[in-house]
Amino acid sequence: MKVKVEKNKIVFAIVLATLLIFLISYSVMVMGDDESDNENLEQTLVPELEEEQKEYDSKLDAINDLKEVRETNAPSIYDEKLLDSTGLYNPDLPELEKQRIVDSIYKSNRINYSERTYRNIGTKRVVQKTEQKIDSSEIIAEQKIKAKELGLEHQLFFASDPKRNEISVLGATDDVIYVVVNGDQTVMVNSRLRMRLMQDATINGKRIPKNTDVFGFISFQPNRALIEIENIDHHPTSLKAIDFQDGSEGIYVQNSFRAEATGEVLDDIIQDINVPGVPQVGGVSKVLRRRNRNVKVTVLNNYKLILKSDNRQ
């Protein structure tokens, strides 16, 4: 009995000692971790360079020494042909892809290859075209109306008498054209006065050079000798001469000519007078006509005139 009791005590003592040793070691470990956490980092360790940077004698050697670093990927353990678009491995992927392609082809022909069934196409609808019956009398009436309208349009077209727009037919003309009398000239009614251009001018879109001869025809009014120009260098036009000095139409004539010029104005009035029993009126008109024919005006050389179009007067 004493031996058993001693054995039990020894076992108990061993177990108790083991527990004490475990507790002491555990407490030491826990306390040691707390102290290491509270320690501050005073100096960071820097790893030492194992190799120094290589130095080159020239830039060409450095460029030649450069090598392209290619990215290297570890080879996949699966065949890339068996990976779908999401990256998952599927050993039946090629077969499914073939089946998908065939299905898309046969689907256009209304056949489901995977289900091996046919679609119900159904019967084709037949659309009946309904023709509208048109009365022939209405067609004939419309044709008659169109024929009458067409005939009326032809009549109006040939009956029209449009006026010719001389402004659109003729080209542009200078607003002001300067001329001078070419030499001393003595003119009468309906005689021509010779002039020349002082500078280049544009007449009805045509360029007329300087010193070109210009001819005007004379008619008289009180104290004025009017000049009309019908063409210049064979180019039709309609111009009137303006006195450069006073800006009025025609050339100024001295007062001694007033009575004779007034007689020309009275010429047309006397022609309309027909008083029975007064034969002397015809004699007076003949005298006036004779005097009008004999009126003469002398225009001096280099007398300046301005030519303007009739529609600007």
UniProtKB/TrEMBL annotation:
Residues 177-308 form the Conjugative transposon TraM C-terminal domain. InterPro entries: TraM_C. Pfam families: Transposon_TraM (PF12508). It comes from the Bacteria. This is Conjugative transposon TraM C-terminal domain-containing protein.
